[in-house]
UniProtKB/TrEMBL annotation:
Family: In the N-terminal section; belongs to the malic enzymes family. In the C-terminal section; belongs to the phosphate acetyltransferase and butyryltransferase family.
Organism: Sphingobacterium sp. (strain 21)
Cofactor(s) required for function per UniProt: Mg(2+); Mn(2+)
Gene3D superfamilies: 3.40.50.10950, Isocitrate/Isopropylmalate dehydrogenase-like, Malic enzyme, N-terminal domain, NAD(P)-binding Rossmann-like Domain
Domain Malic enzyme N-terminal: 19-152
Protein name: Malic protein NAD-binding protein
Binding residue positions for a divalent metal cation: 137-138, 163, 287
Catalytic residues identified in the record: 95 (proton acceptor)
Taxonomy of the source species: Bacteria, Pseudomonadati, Bacteroidota, Sphingobacteriia, Sphingobacteriales
GO molecular function: acyltransferase activity; malic enzyme activity; metal ion binding; NAD binding; oxidoreductase activity, acting on the CH-OH group of donors, NAD or NADP as acceptor
Length: 765
């Protein structure tokens, strides 16, 4: 994007619609007169009096415990300098936005019109009743140090100057990892810190805590190298003053291992970079423009590990990776401050996370196929959903262990679960199913293995111990994709049916297909031809026990994929086939059927579909509560659809009394149990909203799940094919890697359930 376009886009982004980036949203119902009388007068008086009697109750009855103030006077806004409090407001609103989206922390941004330290401290101090924490931002050195020190002493809620400590924590984590990759020891590296302000001094201090030697650090400000013999040297800069006989950045940078830029744009030239030691580390963190442009640095030195504060290049060393989670952890244990132990815990948690395999959602967000620990990935990406569950608990634990927490966390797994829920990362069911799959992984044959997404999913399910993949396709093509994308799939079986044509196994598969279909118009020659199709071959592998289940359909339409399975494997005796989607909604999982196979099911077919859905949901250890949907409620409308749904319910009640099912009903009644009970108290659909929805036609089911997926932001897992003799699962055309992994997980659990069923039947005999 050109600079001009970017400028206009950025201005439009802020100005369009409601100006600015944040707003206040009520968290309680406000629909009725009653709600309002509780929210405000007279009801509000009760929590007021409770808090007046016991101040700590402010955490119980108000938003204080989750509310952070982002406070600035605009004197060091990014690297833009002193642009005043109003000038800094977009940055402060931006911080508020980041706190919210990454850690679900609410923020009021406060821009103070003062450069006077006493006024600043007094103003913030008297805000203590309102906030759970104070994030000081973009206040210039040296005032920022005194402001933070005094507020920490005088306030009993966490106070942190983010430009100092947030930056120190992130760059500390990045430095540990960069040193490891460049095979350098932190205790020995020579570090040049350009800048001697808030960020630079705190970063240098944390590097020393992590093992760097103060005598190996040279610090530089606008006047040059900070030397011990400088006149009027202030105490802060004095901490890192050197007695070496050097005066300029040019002199200091020669043979240095690490350059830390926390100053201004473009001060490090290519010529200077050339003089650094072998395998140099450059963190050019000035915002918005770094001390040396990313492209110039990597062009100048092939052996450099390069990081900037920007999101549009690899290695974004920016305090956004820290402040949301540091405050999250501190707020959740009601810490009285943010101490050294908490900061170091955050450093190590962030550094460690960079070495873990990257979730697919992060690859997708950056449009990179295989991010992994290395020169271009030294710290996690800000969108990594694991940051909250790794960094916040590490910080909270450190607060408890160092004795500054006022609340305990006992069940850390439950706490992490809660953190995921806060961000809507709460796919508990999928996680439970993954855990179940891992207990006994199965052989899954992928019919379309000459496809990157399938191979990536195969790698994930293999790495996670969910399944043993078997890949079908042209061997050379599969190997090429594996090496192009640096996938890691050693020792995985690859089979090309075209190369199997003369094997006894191939012949066995062909004969079996011919036997099954000879009276349905298939000749032996045709059976032979069909078997070259990987869907037929894969289904035959499942049929003959060479694999436990088949996954296909990513690149072909549904009918083309399902037909071979029906021909080779067939349906369970007396059963029909139907498709089910598991919709992972914000209110929990809801199962939709039939969304895939039966266009306009009859009453009898609806009964069978309902039983199939019931049994499938039960296998996932969920008690099904089934609603038969229509546009009418219990006879309120006549018509073909309500009648067939009503009749299906009647048959289900008679033949399957153990199944909790009711209808016909409209979707809003099915999903709102209070409304259903108030209007139709006779219903047997009790104990909460329906979690299985049976649709009258394929059309309505398909439309409903797609709308929910797009507008309701629910994740759709499926279609899960029900009724086949052996597990075959057909992907949605163009599924994502995550959807394929989910589907494999379901397939493995399905195989496990079928095995259990078989053992049960054997025992009964
Ligand atoms: N990536 C990230 O996460 C973060 C990046 N930053 C960036 O770091 C920079 C500094 O921020 P902060 O510490 O808050 O600001 P401060 O105002 O406290 O400090 C700025 C420092 O930079 C020095 N400086 C300015 N220009 C030069 C130059 N040309 N050569 C040498 N030194 C120079 C100043 O020197 P003097 O003392 O002589 O005035 C001062 O010491 C900003 O660009 C900011 O965007 C900050 C926080 C986080
Ligand atoms: C990232 C940040 O806080 C800064 O540049 O000031
Ligand atoms: Mg800042």
């Amino acid at each position: 994007m050109s600079k001009i376009n970017r400028k206009q886009d950025a201005l439009d982004y802020h100005a369009n619609g409601r100006p600015g980036k944040i707003a206040v949203i009520p968290t309680k119902p406000t629909n009725s007169q009653r709600d309002l009388s509780l929210a405000y007068s007279p009801g509000v008086a009760d929590p007021c009096l409770e808090i007046a009697a016991n101040k700590e109750d402010v955490y119980k009855y108000t938003a204080k415990g989750n509310l952070v103030a982002v406070i600035s006077n605009g004197t060091a806004v990014l690297g833009l300098g002193d642009i005043g409090p109003e000038g800094g407001k977009p940055v402060m609103e931006g911080k508020g936005l980041l706190f919210k989206i990454f850690a679900d922390i609410d923020v009021f941004d406060l821009e103070l019109d003062t450069k006077n330290v006493d006024d600043f401290v007094r103003t913030v101090k008297i805000l203590e009743p309102t906030f759970g924490g104070i994030n000081l931002e973009d206040i210039k050195a040296p005032e920022c140090f005194e402001i933070e020190r005094r507020l920490k002493e005088e306030m009993s809620i966490p106070v942190m100057h983010d430009d100092q400590h947030g930056t120190a924590i992130i760059s500390g984590a990045a430095l540990i990892n960069a040193c490891e990759l460049q095979k350098k020891k932190l205790e020995k590296v020579k570090i040049v810190v350009n800048g001697a302000g808030a960020a630079a001094i705190s970063c240098s201090r944390i590097y020393v805590s992590l093992g760097a030697k103060p005598e190996n650090i040279v610090m530089i400000d606008r006047a040059g190298v900070i030397r011990k013999d400088r006149e009027n040297l202030d105490a802060l800069k004095g901490e890192f003053a050197t007695d070496r006989n050097i005066h300029t950045l040019e002199e200091a940078i020669k043979d240095a291992d690490v350059f830390i830029g926390l100053s201004a744009a473009d001060v490090l030239t290519a010529d200077m970079l050339k003089t650094m030691s072998k395998n140099p580390i450059v963190f050019a963190m000035a915002n918005p423009n770094p001390e040396i442009a990313y492209d110039l640095a990597v062009k100048t030195r092939k052996d450099v590990i390069m990081a900037t504060g920007r999101s549009d290049y690899p290695n974004q060393v920016n305090n956004v990776l820290g402040f949301p989670y540091i405050f999250r952890g501190a707020l959740d244990v009601r810490a009285t401050g943010i101490n050294e132990e908490m900061k170091l815990a955050a450093v190590y948690a962030i550094a460690k996370l960079a070495k873990e395999p990257v979730p697919e959602s992060v690859n997708l967000a950056y449009n990179i196929n295989n991010l992994k620990f290395g020169k271009d990935y030294i710290i996690p990406k800000p969108t990594d959903p694991r940051l909250i569950t790794e960094v916040a608990p590490a910080v909270a634990k450190a607060a408890i262990e160092s004795g500054i927490a006022r609340a305990e966390i006992k069940d850390w797994e439950a706490y992490k679960e809660n953190l995921r829920k806060r961000l809507g990362l709460d796919d508990v069911l999928m996680r439970d199913l993954s855990a179940a799959a891992r207990q006994s992984p199965k052989r899954v044959v992928f019919a379309e293995a000459d496809n990157y997404k399938i191979l990536k999913a195969a790698q994930i399910v293999k790495d996670e111990g969910i399944a043993h993949p078997i890949l079908l396709g042209r061997k050379e093509k599969i190997q090429r994709i594996i090496s192009e994308h640096a996938l890691d799939l050693p020792n995985v079986t690859i089979i090309d049916p075209l190369e199997e044509i003369d094997t006894p196994k191939f012949k066995q598969y062909v004969e079996a297909l011919y036997r099954k279909r000879q009276r349905r118009g298939i000749t032996l020659l045709e059976a032979n031809k069909f078997m070259l199709d990987r869907n037929y071959y894969g289904a035959s592998m499942v049929e003959f026990g060479e694999a436990d289940c088949l996954i296909s359909g990513l690149t072909k339409n549904y009918a083309t994929t399902i037909r071979p399975a029906l021909h080779v494997i067939g349906t369970r005796s007396g059963s029909r086939v139907a498709g089910m989607y598991m919709m992972l909604t914000k209110k929990g999982p809801v199962f939709f059927g039939d969304t895939t196979v039966n266009k306009n099911p009859t009453e009898e077919e609806l009964v069978d579909i309902t039983v199939l859905l019931h049994d499938a949901v039960k296998k996932m250890n969920i008690d099904p509560r089934i609603a038969m949907l229509s546009y009418s409620n219990f006879g309120s409308n006549e018509g073909e659809i309500p009648t067939k749904m009503r009749n299906a319910v009647k048959t289900l009640h008679e033949k399957y009394p153990h199944i909790v099912v009711d209808g016909e009903m409209q979707a809003n009644f099915a999903t709102n149990s209070q409304m259903l009970a108030e209007n139709f108290p006779f219903t047997n659909l009790s104990g909460g909203p329906a979690n299985v929805l049976v649709f009258p036609t394929l059309e309505s089911g398909n439309i409903a799940y797609k709308l929910l997926q797009e507008l309701g932001e629910a994740e759709a897992v499926g279609p899960i094919l029900l009724g086949l003799n052996k597990p075959v699962h057909v992907l949605q055309l163009g599924s994502s890697v995550r959807e394929i992994v989910n589907m494999v997980t379901i397939a493995v659990v399905d195989v496990q359930a079928k095995e259990k069923e078989a053992v049960g039947k054997e025992k009964k005999k």
